[in-house]
Amino acid sequence: MAQMRGEKVEVNGINIHYEKVGNGPNIVLLLPGALGTSRTDFNEILEGGLDQSKFTLIAWDPPGYGFSRPPQRNYTRDVYENDADYAYNLMKTLGHNFYSVLGWSDGGKTAVFLASKYPAVVDKLVIWGVVPFGLPHTNRAFAATKNMTFWDPAVKKRFTDVYGDELEVLWNKLVDDCFRNGIGNQNHIIIADSVVDKIHCPCLIMHGDKDPMVSIEHAQFLHKHLADSRLQRFPQASHNLHQTFPKEFHKYVTDFLLYE
């Protein structure tokens, strides 16, 4: 099992695990995806993908994930908005009142709610792999992830190192609960346009054109409703584009956060 690399701090009654690396003046909060932790999702970024003399990187394990357990994760309809509240209070507890946010997949949903509810603290927003509403073909792709035979072995190992033999049970619960509570159902609205319309900070949206779970319609919806946004497509990338095309990813993020 993986060893805890960071620290824990109490936020609203939950001991939240986070890692902080770098000492640069640009503070960046990293929000991982489903079952994700600081290292399962962002190891490449934390290991030098972003210049640590220019950035201070803070990556968390959301409540109920990784080393932020207990509690057990509950996939209610307001789970991403609740995570946004916890993330905001984590950063407040750590003494950071203005920062950029990187959110992948479910973490991207949390990032959107964070920027919408707390606009005064978010400098810039970077999101990728975000599903704001259900579509039949992307829902089928999500449901198919329960068959872990087809998972990339390297990706699966990252999660097994954290969750061990619990991984398959936890993942199946995640998928089942999402559909049971409507999060993954056809035409269900996860992020309403009224939420996105409140965001006015600069936003970089990235999309892997070969992502089976996230359609270009999802990225285009966010691009349309985010007042100050740009869309960067990766023609050969899938869902985890930051891991499969790290050089390009890090360059786009660095240029956007520092120079645009």
From TrEMBL:
It comes from the Eukaryota. Pfam families: Abhydrolase_1 (PF00561). Residues 27-153 form the AB hydrolase-1 domain. One of its GO terms (molecular function) is serine hydrolase activity. Keywords: Hydrolase. This is Valacyclovir hydrolase-like protein. The lineage of its organism: Eukaryota, Metazoa, Ecdysozoa, Arthropoda, Chelicerata.
